[in-house]
Amino acid sequence: MAEKKEDSKAEEAREEGTVATESVATDTAAKPGDMETNKDSAGSSNEGKEEEAQKNADQKAKESNQEVQEESGKKEEGVEGKGGGGEEEKEEGTTEEQNREGDYGGGGEEEEEEEEEDVFGSLATFTSEVLSALACPAEPLSPQDRSPRPLPHQPTDIPNTMKLLQDLMTYDEEEPEVSYGPGPCDTEGRLAATSHLLAALVTTLDPQHLRRLATRLMSDSCLWVSRLFRYFESTAYIHEDVREGVVRVSRMLLHTRYPRYGQEGYHALYTRPPVIYTAATVRPGLPQHLATMLGLGSVCVRVVPCCDEGGLGAASGACMDTAALSRMMAEDAAAHKRPFLVIANTGGGAVGGVDNVSRVLEVCNLHDAWLHAEGHALAALTLPNTPNLPARVCDSMTLPLSLWLGIPSLPYVTLYKAQEASAVHAAGLTALSLHVRLSCLPLWTALMTLGQSGVVSRLQHAFELSQYLQLHLANLKRIRLLSPAPPDEDKVVTIQDLVNKPISTMQLLETVSGSVVFQYVEEGNPNSKNSEYYDNLNSWLGQVVRRDVGSVALELVQLESAGLVLRWSPLEAPDTHHLTRTDLDHLLHSLHHQLDILNATVEQRKTFTELVASAPNLKLVDIPGWAGLGGVRYMAELWAHQDPSTQASKADINALNVHLVSQLKATDSAFSLGEGSDGLNCVRFGMVTADTDLSELLSLVLSTGKEVERSSRIIDQMTDIVRKGIEAATEDLRRENEERLWQEGILRHVPIVGSVYNWFSPPPTQGIKGRTLDLTAGVLESTENIYRYHMQIRHGTAPTRTETKLPPAPSIQTPVTPNASSPSHSRSSSNTSTLHSRHASENQPVAVQEGVKTPAVSANGVPAAVQS
After folding, report:
1. Beta-strand (E) ranges in 790-849?
2. pLDDT digits (tens, 9 = 90+) for 824-841
3. What is the pLDDT of residues 259-293, one digit of tens each?
4. CB 59: neighbour CB atoms within 10 A?
5. From residue 787, how far is each of 22, 550, 784, 806, 846 by CA, in Å?
6. Measuring CA to CA, which residue among 399, 323, 309 is closest to residue 362?
7. Burial classification of residue 333, based on how many CB atoms lie within 10 Å of its CB (0-12 exposed, 13-18 middle, 19 or more buried)
8. What is the rounded CA–CA span in Å between residue 530 and residue 628?
9. How far, rounded to the nearest angstrom, does the alpha carbon of residue 552 sit from its chain's CA centroid?
10. Looking at residue 146, what is its pLDDT?
11. How confident is the model over 451-462, as a mean pLDDT?
């Protein structure tokens, strides 16, 4: 019955001028999971299926008849033995009879349903447990636990496996502080994810039933897609690699254009080698991948230059030059080469330009070449409310439905004009592997759930948002649109007009825009490539707008002909169908606000450069990748008129500017530390508004810099004084220790002998000797007055009337200055210090024991006592 329904559907589709389904070619030598379909072989394959199904039915009927006969024989034997066998045989016969009724009656169906419910129920329970475990937050694993390792010899339990999977999904070694998670899914997205589970589960079905199921799903999917895009005379190939469709189609063309290619291989191409032509805006790497997969080499690929047919300006390079294409094909034909394939762009690439496919198709027909199209504008073929009007665009097209519909993990679909059945089979366009999973099931469920109206409404909504944003961006000053520009206001064709009014296919493709590309440009120079500074401005603009309006996913793209641009493609965002014009109004409001800041920064930058040039201690610095006013480096008077080249000078400049930025941040947090192109630190000035007073900001930098320079000079002098004071004190204490050693005699320091000698003749009591450093006066003094009067006394100042008479000056005073080459003592001899120390108090505490070489100085500049 299912086969008859499929045949009736195919006949109805042919009556409407469409191809309903691909046939299934069954081969007894093929594997059970391989299926090949083709429209041309539909009749033969259907006959083969009917014959096979009839044989299977006859075989099953024979087997069932034999089983019934055997059971009836057993039943007669049970009846014959009933008289002699008693009640037990009767009960056994009754039980067997009930079992037979259950096998052939309704009881068996109930048991099968229970088994199916058990399978799905157990799978649902298991899946729920696994997903619940993955949803629970967990701490990241150690690097040893998550590092790659050989396959374990013993099996790993499921919780540990899921734990490792969760860690790999959530954390990354390069960014351990960032956690990741799957994005939100709507009903259709969750259904698509579940369909992948079912696609793997149905492979456990009976092989014959699985083939019939796959045929039905594939036929429905191909029929629905071909009718949605109004390409009725086409066959669909469902694949998972976006490039695989055009590769298989090209293989089909090789078998068609070169009839002996299947037997001779590349020798058949020698007389007239094929040539592939591609637009410069086609997805990068596609032509080279195609040539590699076909074994032709990159020599056969020719890139067609772009022109300004789309009115986008020379900088965009949006569409193919059809005149150049025609000329290149004529040259190759004259050189005994075959124009083989042309890959056109219809709204794809970074800019979203549309090639003149109608003109390109004419050139291809003239030279017997195949035209393959890719791009977001192809989604507009579903918009016109004329489902029976065919859209003649190209010979084949690749459709990324998962990207356009915002449903995750749907396969790609390539619609192509079918050729000879043998070429189609040789190219593998009808092969479908059923061993792994049924890949068309997620697409089938998504299309069935959305319906034609749901698919069209999502695509129409995306094009309406794109057109709405473009119309508003076109009115903004200093914003250049690089995507296809909207028409004049008096000739605006809305998306609703494309749906309700009759319109040509080429006008349809040129009206819609699958992506919006724009950039901030210099005033008075709108058509040239942006400078590096304006690339920095566009980078800042994109980052700030994305932060303000996170629902609209703007991306930054570097174009060779225009520089850095901002791009938004509603057909590539997964949640476009949830966006509204209110979200775009928020985006436009943010753009207006940030453009005011950009305009003010550009205008103020000229004044900023002039003010910095007039300041004696400031130097303008170029900061790579910085979008603000620029950088300023404070130069001390020592380096103001010379170029510091030594490492010490560079270190001093860096330290000075780091200290300067830290002081400025205390006043205004807008200041930040930057690094110029020469590797030296500087003060960064960011974005400003029109009312920002630059002279006040630079005056603040100058005054703060001079304070930092002055404090740095004082600190350097104090550091030098302390260093020299420590050296002088250490040298004095060393000398006095040596003198004391000679005065006391060597015998007192000899082991054992010295102890006996000291017992007979006790040594004199040692006086308190040490050094104190007066940082203000720069003098190193002895410490006898400190321990005698219990205070620190500064000498060299006249006492006032209220002050008492000062104690006598210390016996040792050594001046310490930053420029002094060596310390000099003011005492006449070391004996004076020794005699004076003997008269000191014997009960004073000793701060530093004998032999300590390093005197202490307090951090706040107060002189500290150093004693021996």
Report:
1. 813-815
2. 333 333 333 333 333 333
3. 999 888 888 998 899 999 998 888 888 989 999 99
4. 10
5. 111, 73, 6, 15, 9
6. 323
7. middle
8. 16
9. 16
10. 86
11. 94
